[in-house]
Amino acid sequence: MVGVRERLRRPFESFHGALGCCSAKRMPEQPQPRPVGRITTTMTVQTEVSTWSRAIVKRSNDVAKAYDMDQGSIGVGAFGTVVAATDRASGARRAIKSVPKRDAKGAEALDRELGYMKMMDHPCIVKIFDVYEDRKSLHFAMELCEGGTLFSRIVEAGYFSPSVAAPVMKQVMQAVYHLHSSDIVHRDLKPENFLFLHHAPVEGNVLKLIDFGLAVSCSPGKVLKRQVGTLAYMSPQVLERHYDRQCDIWSCG
Questions:
Q1: Mean pLDDT value across the chain
Q2: CA-based R_g, the chain, Å
Q3: Can 26-44+146-252 and 47-143 be said to share one CATH topology?
Q4: CA 16, CA 125: separation in Å to the nearest integer?
Q5: Which residues are noted in the entry as ATP-binding (predicted)?
Q6: What is the mean pLDDT of residues 117-140?
Q7: Coil, helix or strand for 67?
């Protein structure tokens, strides 16, 4: 058990140590990086404005008619499953996340998550292309990220050197900055919720933020009181049920 605990502790320290630890008495200052557009695999930043997110609508037809699903899931969580699939019309590879609606409250939460995802248009945030709805579930057709989670890469490597960690954390903070610029707080930032786009090495790879199930609108000055997230990455203010969007900054470092 000692070996297992050590293995899990090291990636936690690597993720938090990349930006330095924060005082429990004071939240860190909100970062103010410049707005950015597309990030290439060489980390070159270019300006881009797209309208893909504005065109997303719910489709009531069968998702299986539009996508050829692979056998077996590539991800299973508390809120649903994810399978790889191919768009029958374009041949594009996608990830299909299927989430049961269960009840009216659950359906409302899914609609809220979808709304936040539709608002996001950033190279470090996973894109959503189509949404299909049937009687029992919602199906999100999203970017297929094949490089695994940031957590698994840290465990595999043991730790990231500063030269590797710096561009990774740059992408993390760019995603968070974009969220906060849209008055949205994620509330569950952790290495497991960042995926690499490619199987390629970490250096030069593209990182994507996923899972907006706990995201909520939070304008400047608004105080949140619901205690949500993953305990190991919660700020003291979340534990005290009195926090704002800077709780995401704590989770990053």
A1: 79
A2: 18
A3: no
A4: 20
A5: 97
A6: 90
A7: strand
Which of the residue ranges 44-48, 115-119, 128-132, 139-143 would you say has the lowest mean pLDDT?
Answer: 44-48
Superfamily for 47-143?
Answer: Phosphorylase Kinase; domain 1 (3.30.200.20)
Residues forming the annotated binding site for ATP?
97
Which ranges in 93-201 belong to alpha helices (H)? 104-119, 150-157, 162-181
What's the CATH class of domain 26-44+146-252?
mainly alpha
Gap between the Cα atoms of 124 and 144, Å rounded: 13
CA 236 to chain centre: 22
Question: Residues 87, 103, 121, 188: which is the catalytic one?
Answer: 188
Could you tell me which of 216, 82, 206 has the C-alpha nearest to residue 142? 82
Q: Is 56 left (phi over 0), alpha (psi -120 to 50) or beta?
A: beta
Tokens of 204: 């030069």
Decide: residue 207, CB within 10 A, 0-12 exposed, 13-18 middle, 19+ buried.
buried
- pLDDT per residue as tens digits for the range 75-126: 776 567 899 999 999 999 999 999 887 765 667 777 888 889 888 899 999 9
Instruction: Tell me whether residue 121 is one of the annotated catalytic residues.
Output: no
What SS3 class is residue 58? strand
| Residue 83 burial (CB count, 10 A) | 19
- The one-letter amino acid at 13: E
